[in-house]
Design brief:
This protein is α/β, with parallel strands linked by helices. It is 47% helix and 18% strand. The longest helix has 17 residues, at 152-168. The radius of gyration is 16 Å and the shape is globular.
């Protein structure tokens, strides 16, 4: 039986909010594990054939606060409020496909998570910060891989992938009532 080799990923973390250190002290290894698992589960199911699994997938993750995410959400999405995570996918850039032909790695894009919003949501849902962080990060990675949830059929695909990935992390289905 032939085993599929793991797709290589790298996560670069920018810590813009020092409170992350106490809220989720293991954020670096946790993020690396979640990103790797999400890419290895989702990439084989995507229709983006130009994303070659033999290359390295690079992800930028900024751990920030409501204030910074609010400003970015207002500037880029015209929404005057904080949100839990923003994803800025390079796959949406017209030059991305051309760059994938010559580069040895794919810089997939940037994600930024607001600590306070994430904490509030975890409290409301009565789930751990760890589990909610894993869900948000999985969601962001899927966006950077080209998945979306605007249309109902897209949302169903993306949510089922999230659930599958989270199950591998022993995290309950976040969409279950």
């Amino acid at each position: 039986m032939k085993t599929r080799s793991m797709i290589k990923t790298e996560v670069y973390i920018c810590l813009n909010e020092p409170l992350w250190e106490t809220a989720l002290p293991d954020h670096q290894p946790l993020a690396e594990n979640v990103v790797s698992l999400a890419v290895n589960c989702a990439l084989p199911k995507t229709n983006k054939s130009f994303l070659k699994p033999e290359k390295i997938f690079l992800f930028n993750l900024c751990l920030s606060n409501d204030s910074e995410v609010h400003a970015l959400n207002k500037e880029f999405r015209n929404k005057d409020k904080a949100t839990n995570i923003l994803s800025f996918a390079n796959i949406d850039d017209p030059d991305f496909i051309n760059d994938t032909k010559t580069e040895s790695s794919f810089e997939m894009g940037d994600m930024i998570i607001a600590l306070e919003t994430m904490q509030k949501e975890a409290d409301i849902k009565k789930i751990s910060l760890h589990d909610h962080f894993c869900h948000l990060l999985t969601h962001g990675v899927l966006h950077l891989l080209g998945y979306d949830h605007i249309q109902d059929d897209e949302a169903e695909i993306m949510e089922s992938l999230e659930v599958e990935i989270l199950q591998k992390l022993n995290i309950n289905n976040p969409y279950k009532e």
